[in-house]
Amino acid sequence: MFSIFPIKGFIDQIDGFYCDGVSAGLKPNNKKDIGFIYSDTLCDVGAVLTNNKFQAAPLRHYQRYENDFKTNFVLINSKNANALTGEKGIEDINTIFSSLKFDITNPIMSSTGVIGNRLPIQKIVDGANTFDLSSKNGENLSQAIMTTDAYPKACLYEVKLEDGSSFKIGAVAKGAGMINPNLATMLCFICTDAKVSKKDIEEALNENKETTFNAISVDGDTSTNDTVLVLANGKSNAYDKEAFKEALKLVMHDMAMLMVADGEGAKKAVAFEVINAATKEDAITAAKALSNSLLVKTALFGEDPNFGRIASTIGASRIECDENSLVIAYNDVVVFNKGEIVFDAKCEEDAGKVLQNKEFKIVCDIGLGTESFIAYGCDLGYEYVKINADYRS
The pTM is what? Predict the structure, then answer.
C-alpha cells in the first residue's frame, strides 16, 4: 500500500535538486531564457524523445552517451531550438559545456524555440557561468524555458510507502504549440529522489506515455525537440515499483493537461472519449483524429455543437464504424443516437451550454465492441494564427 499527496511548489523541494533561470540575452527585455537543473548526487536517467525524423542536435547529443550513463546537470535554453544544424549543432553543445566554469558530469542540453539557427554560444556560456548551483528557484526555471506558453507548468508529489519511507517526484515543463499525439511537443523535466533504476524509469515512462503525452493535441504538429526526461538521484533511499509508476503517471498527466489547456490561444480543454470500438487501435485512431481535426477545433472555438464534424472525422479515420450504432454526446447531452438525429432546438441549446465550459468531454460510442481510449485537445482560434504568424519576431 502507498499514498500519493500533491504538494505546492517546484522540483527544488526534492532532496538534492537545485535549479534556477536567468537572462542570457536570447529573449528581449531581459526575460529569463536559460536555466539549469543540478543534482548534488549523480542521477539515473530515462527519456522518451520525438519521433520527428529531423531530431534536433540536443537529442542527438544525448543519444551519444552510453546507455547506462549518469548525469548531474541539465542546461535548457529557449528561443533557439538548435535544430537542422547538423554536426555543427552538436559541436556547439560540446563547446558550451567545455566553457562552463563548474564541474559537471555527462551534462545534458535541451533547447526550444526557432528551428534552423545555430546557438548563440557566447551568450549562453556567459549566462550559464552566472548560475549558482546552490540555487533553489523553480519558478525562475519555469519562466526561462517558456516560449509561447501563457503560464509556467509544474507539479510536485510526495509518495508515502507502507514501511514509513517516502520519496518525492515532480516536474517542470513547457509546451503550448506544435502539440501532436506522437510524443507531443514539449520539454518536460521530471525529478525524483526515489531510488529507482534506469530500467524501471524507462519501463514506467513507456507505459505511461500513451495515455498522457501521446494522447494530446493542440495543432497536429510534432516538433524536432520533444523531450521527456526523468532524473532520479536516489537520495531518499525509498522505492516501490508500483508506487513510482503511479506517481509518474500522475506527473505526466498533469503536465499533459496543462499543455492542452495552454494551447496557443486556447480557451477550452476537451476530452475526446471513444468507447465500444471494435479494437483498441480503432479507439485510439478515432480519438486522436478528433483531437487533431481543425474543423472540430474551430467548432469548439465557436461553441458550435456541430456533431456532423464529429461523425465525419470518425468516418474519415477509416475505423470500423456504422452510423446505425454510433452515439455522440457532449458530456451527457446526446445529439446523435444510432442513426437517429435528436438534435432539436432544446438539444442544441443544452449542447451549446456544454461548449461554453472551459472543460468538457465529447463521448463517441462506436457500438461495435468493448475497446476505449481518451485523447485530449483544445479549440483553435484567431490567437493561434497570430502567435504563429509572428513566431520568429
Answer: 0.79
Residues paired with 273 in a beta bridge: 363, 374
Cell 465525419 locates to 312
Paired residues of 108 in beta bridges: 74
Say how far apart CA 328 and CA 361 lie, in whole Å.
11
Q: Kindly list the domain boundaries of the chain, sorted by start residue.
A: 2-261, 269-389
- Which residue in 80, 89, 88, 87 sits closest to 113, CA to CA? 80
Rounded to the nearest 10 degrees, what angle do helices 121-128 and 86-98 cross at? 30
Query: In the CATH hierarchy, which fold is given to the domain comprising 2-261?
Result: L-amino peptidase D-ALA esterase/amidase (3.60.70)
CA–CA gap between residue 185 and residue 160 (Å, rounded): 32
Strands (DSSP E) contained in 175-236 are: 187-192, 227-232
pLDDT in tens, 110-167: 998 888 999 999 999 999 999 999 999 999 999 999 876 777 889 999 999 999 999 9
**What is the topology classification, in CATH, of domain 269-389?**
Ubiquitin-like (UB roll) (3.10.20)
C-alpha 52/C-alpha 312 separation (Å) is 28
Binding-site annotation: residue ranges for substrate: 147, 174, 185, 264, 388, 393
Q: Mind telling me the catalytic residues?
A: 185
Q: Spell out a b/e string for 19-39, using b for 16 or more CB atoms within 10 Å of the CB, else e.
A: bbbbbbbbbeeeebbbbbbbb
